[in-house]
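Late entry, evening session. Most of the bench is empty. Finally got around to the prediction I had been postponing all week. Sequence below, unchanged from the version circulated by S.P.
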Amino acid sequence: MAGKGQCRFKDILGSSQAVSQAVSNVAAIAEENTAASEEMAKTAAQVNVAMQNIASISEESAASTEEVSASTEQITANNQEISASAEQLSKLAQELKKLVVQFKV
């Protein structure tokens, strides 16, 4: 009977060692998961900051585009005024030329 008891004890000891090893493996996996989760959280925070920077740059770009558009409209209006003034000057020059011809001796 002592032999059976020893066998049983060895079986229990072997099982308990296997359970202990399995618990250690699960603990190691849990630690790896924790480390991976922490890394993912850091990466998510970095992505969030990058997205905020992109949003800020987009807003600045939109504002700059609006400024450029307004400047372009102003330049177009100025060019139209210059063109109108040039036409008036051309007409005045033609009229002046006709008047000068009349006074030639």
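Two things to note before I forget:
Residues 26 and 88 are 91 Å apart (CA to CA).
The mean pLDDT is 91.
Will write this up properly tomorrow.
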